Amino acid sequence: MALYSAAAAVLAGLERGEGGLKSLVYNSGFPHVRQLYALVSETLRYASVLEKLLDGAALLQAEKKLPPQLAKVLVYDLLFGKGLKCGGRWKALARRHRARLEAELARMKVRHKVSRNEDLLAPEKAVSTATSHVPRYVRVNTLKTCVDDVIEFFKRQGYAYLGKAASVEELKALSGKKFMLDLHLPELLVFPSQTDLHDNLLYTSGHIILQDKASCLPAFILGPVAGSHVIDACAAPGNKTSHLAAILKNKGQIFAFDVDPKRVATMNTLLTRAGVTGCQLVQQDFLTVDPRDRKYSRVTHILLDPSCSGSGMVTRGPGEEAAPSAERLQALAGFQRRVLSHALSFPALQRLVYSTCSLHQEENEDVVQAVLQEWGSAFRLVTAFPSWPCRGLAAFSGAESCLRASPADTLTHGFFVAVLERRREGTAAPSSLPAAAKENPQPGEGTEPGAAPKRKKKKQRVK
């Protein structure tokens, strides 16, 4: 994969909330990860300047087939970086517009009364205490190993295991080579925020997945039982897909969709490393999938994590994302409503989880409310993860059934999750529990998600 295309794919992944900067770079398949990381980091640092340049020079209007993420990368390297040392046809395209981009940059400097490019950057905001304490979360891949074996492996590497956390404050206090079991999710280990495990044997062999806690919630809450047919509608890069496969114990069928062939290839690599079977990767826009196709006639669960503003992501690298414009939010919300409504049209669907890594009500509660109104009494919200402390904004009656996550309150990326179940006339009220949680309730602890099921021994030992 070419450098600029790889960088654009990482930016798109950040916008879609598919992981942190390091994870997306290391999972990109690009051979020179440091070069890619540096380019994406600097593009993020100049993001607000680049957006103004693109608008002022009308580059995206002139080149309608140029993806905005790729445009940012090209313009950054052309004007602020190394001057487009590679890039092939993309380099030629950017250079065609060099004169007006440079003119727009000069006008920006005049307006801001500065002479250096760096002076266009807003002063860096102090990182909040909450954000700086977002830990490194590690999901144990139960397709290959078990929690106990992974804990023992890290202990042999010199890490100190402090047991299961009882509060968010305990996680916030982690430092050095100490780690804990998460207080909510039974297969999630928690390390201090600066812990880098990308070169660790467990990661490179697929025994652990580096995935933020909030990103683990959708699959956990969906909770399909083994043997279910499940759709992951916007699946790349595949962390949530591999989590679904672990919940299903590789029994059943997953249909994982993404429209980008390079992202599908990346997802295939990740899922193969994780030991996932029974998953059909489909290079297709989910909106074009026919719900009446016989191959999807047994799909009872759908995980829908569509493109969003990514405003809840805590970037681990340098740079800050510019706040999306009102027009951008409106466009995203329109797409999200269409894709959620489309997902509900699958005839055998019983349970759907809708999630975003956005903080904006327009992409979250407003989307869910609009689609529920469209579908009338066919579907209704059920309470997602009752013990979770942060609930949805009171945008409509029932919004408290949704959950939100944030660095300040839950020590995670910003996230939103809603659970919709098909309403059956004459049946009992739909459960707030994922099916996986019902299978193995922990005696004496209740059966709501978050009550850790008893850990089982032993799958493949980690040596």
From TrEMBL:
InterPro entries: MeTrfase_RsmB-F_NOP2_cat, MeTrfase_RsmB-F_NOP2_dom, NSUN5_7_fdxn-like, NSUN5_RCM1_N, RCMT, SAM-dependent_MTases_sf. The keyword S-adenosyl-L-methionine applies. Residues 126-423 form the SAM-dependent MTase RsmB/NOP-type domain. The active site is at C357 (nucleophile). Residues 91-118 form a coiled coil. GO terms for cellular component: nucleolus. GO terms for molecular function: RNA binding; rRNA (cytosine-C5-)-methyltransferase activity. Keywords: Acetylation, Coiled coil, Methyltransferase, Nucleus, Phosphoprotein, RNA-binding, rRNA processing, S-adenosyl-L-methionine, Transferase. It comes from the Eukaryota. It is found in: Nucleus, Nucleolus. SUPFAM superfamilies: S-adenosyl-L-methionine-dependent methyltransferases. It holds the Pfam family NSUN5_fdxn-like. GO terms for biological process: rRNA base methylation. S-adenosyl-L-methionine binds at C234, A235, A236, P237, G238, N239, K240, D258, D285, D305. Residues 426-463 are annotated as: Disordered. Residues 453-463 have a biased composition (Basic residues). Belongs to the class I-like SAM-binding methyltransferase superfamily. RsmB/NOP family. This is 28S rRNA (cytosine-C(5))-methyltransferase. It comes from Setophaga kirtlandii.
